[in-house]
Each structure stands twice: as C-alpha cells, then as structure tokens.
Amino acid sequence: MTSNNKNLTTIVIAILVLGGSFYFGFQYGVAYRPVADTATELSNKESELAEKVDFSSFWKVWSLLDEKFVGKSTTTVSTEEKVWGAIQGLTASLGDPFTVFFPPEENKIFTSEVSGKFEGVGMEIGNKDGNLVVIAPLKGTPAYRAGIEPGDIILKIDDKSSITMNSDQAVKIIRGPKGTTVKLLIQRTGKTDPFEIKIVRDTINIPTIDTESKQIAENEPGYQDENGLTKEGVFILRLYNFSEPSPNLFREALRKFIESGSDKLILDLRSNPGGYLGAAIDMASWFLPAGKTIVRENYGDKQKEDSHRSYGYNIFNSNLKMIILVNGGSASASEILAGALQEYGIAKLVGTKTFGKGSVQELISITPETSLKVTIAKWLTPNGLSISDGGLTPDYEVEITEDDRKANKDPQLKKALELLKSM
Fold first, then answer.
1. pLDDT digits (tens, 9 = 90+) for 121-153
2. Would you put residue 315 in left (φ > 0), alpha (ψ -120 to 50) or beta?
3. What does the domain layout of the chain look like in residue ranges?
4. Backbone phi and psi for residue 152, each to the nearest 5 degrees, phi listed first
5. CATH number among 3.40.50.10320, 3.90.226.10, 3.40.50.1000, 3.10.180.10, domain 15-33+207-422
6. Which residues are designated catalytic?
C-alpha cells in the first residue's frame, strides 16, 4: 500500500469512527413510508363525489345483503366490518398488489412486522406475474432452514389455494404463534411437480450483516492480522436487509474492510428483500460524491419527480475493486443500491436478474386501528431505468443449479473472485 493510501486510510478510519449515519424516508421491506398528514377518522365523502360517481348500486347491494343474506354461522358481520370489506374491495379494484387496506387485525400484524421482531416463518413474499412468490427467506429463520428459495411460487397455504391472494393476505395466514406449523405447496423452477414444505413457526429476529475475509486463491498463504482478516485478500460483506440499524453496521463493516488492507470488496445482496430507503441512500453515499443521484422517484403526472442524492462520504478512490452479488431475491432497496453503483461504474453485478420491486408505497393512518398502504411512485435508477420493469440485469449472469446447491457450491461467488483476481 502506498504512503498516500496509508494517509487516506488513516483519514478514512477517523471519518468512519466519528461519522454518523443519516436516516431519511421510511421504506420498509418494500419501501413503506408514513406521512405527517394522516386521516384520523372516516368521513362521508359521497357528497363530494356525487357528480362523478353513482353510488346507488352500492347502497342497493348493501340493503339487499342486510335483507336477504344468510351466513354459514350465526355470527353477525358488524357494520364496521362491512365498511372495511368495501374499502378492501376498492383498493383491490386498482389491480396493484402493493396497494392494500389494513383492517384492525391485519394492521396489528403489519405493525409487528415493521418492528423487526415477530412470530412466523421468516420470509419476504410478494406478487409477481400473477403469482404469490417468495422474494427471499431470511437467513437463519425457519423458512431458510426448511429450504425455501427465492422465486418459489406458493400454490397453497395449509391446503387453501393462494393463487388469488395478495401478499398481505398470505402473510396473515402464514404468520402464527411460535411452535405451530404451516404447510406450503411450492412450485419451483427446474422441478416438474409441486411439492410440500412444512415449516414450524418461531420468533423471528431479522439478521442484518456479516463479514468474511477470503483469499483469491485458496492455496496462496496470506497474512492475517489480530482480527483474523487476510491482508490483500478479498473482503466479503453480506447484507441481509436494510433495517434501521443497518447503516451503522455497514459503516463498521467498511472500517474492517479498510483495516484489512484489501482493495477488493464483494457486497453480497443476494436474497436481500430491501428495507429502509434511507439506509440504501446512506450506504451508496460511501462510494459516490455529494449530490450524485442515487435513485429517482417518479410520480407519473401526480407531481414533479424527486431525486435522492449522495451525502458525499465518498471515501474510496479509483483503487477500489468491487463486485455486487445479486439474484431474484434482491429487491427494493437492494436494487436501488446495486443499480446506482452499477450505473456509475463503481461495481459490476454478478448473479441473476433481480426481483424488480421498484414501486413506492406510502403508509397512511385511516383510523387509529386501520391504515392504507398505497403505491405513490416508481423507482428509477440514475439513468432512468424503471426497476419495476424486469429488475436489474447483471453484468455477468451466473446461475446456481440444483446440483450446485446439493454440492454446496457457489459459482456466483467463484465468478466474483475470478473477476477480482483479474482486476
């Protein structure tokens, strides 16, 4: 390492130790964001819409149901529950699986999930191409241990067809008390027939990050410092989500990378379903000058487009050699970070196409017990690529086959190591 690089390292470590992380926006898991101006109670807006909408059919059906409907049980559906059901039907009519109304029970489930600790199986799911799809199982969770994989299509949940379910409806069924079992019928690419996986629910503590230092060639001796980090090897940083504490943990991981003496970094975002937008902006800022656009927020014709820009930590020089690993489970904030660093030429992407979760949801309180999650915008990369339109395409496409998994091989990581060796 040159004297200039040593001086830079000293300065960088000081910055990393003293620097704080900033949090802007609330884009959970799939980029949720609360707002200050929220409705506190339902109000009758029919008079405002009377000139545009004929509600006579709605009220006729309401009256006929009150008059004629006989249910399977003697339990009476309350007026409030009918209102919640009507609102759910209204949001469903938009055809957007990410725009959802949460009645009280579902709202409690969603709130507990946002807190980062809950009881369930530990996987992120979403709707794609008309299917209920696993975005990613979270590391170390029951779903991960049971063998759930990104891209798995869920056909049934406990013998109930999930083909017409949106992800929030499915979560309500899959979630449950610790120690209970949920049964999933899975269709997986590469397998002819669907198969069943049983998962025992547990308390889920969402993992965030881990690091590893690896030599480019296994047969080459390497110097290890007191922390066990290999000098001049490859530093691997695995990020599992963009949770609230992740920017500080990412900063600490970068400090370890610098102290390792290596200039070769692999950022593993495989099966990372996303999280806070602010975390992605903060992480990208370590690699980009101040003011560089990281992601664009396009509202269509509703309002002017916004850009989220780098804070300008920008501690690395042109000596940095970086690969980002991605797959079909890399979504939302993962795609924002990877897309920006790919387009600015900071990193090459290795793996398979990302999930394509590029829409922005705003979480709005409707009553103290209910809320509405509504799509308000789409994410665009700095160059204007819509993340929702097929996700990100890697610079080097590498598949992991079923045989690779059985043999515990990782050809994507192997390709990344080969590329870094030649840089």
1. 999 898 988 899 999 998 889 999 999 999 999
2. alpha
3. 15-33+207-422, 117-204
4. -60, 135
5. 3.90.226.10
6. 332, 343, 357
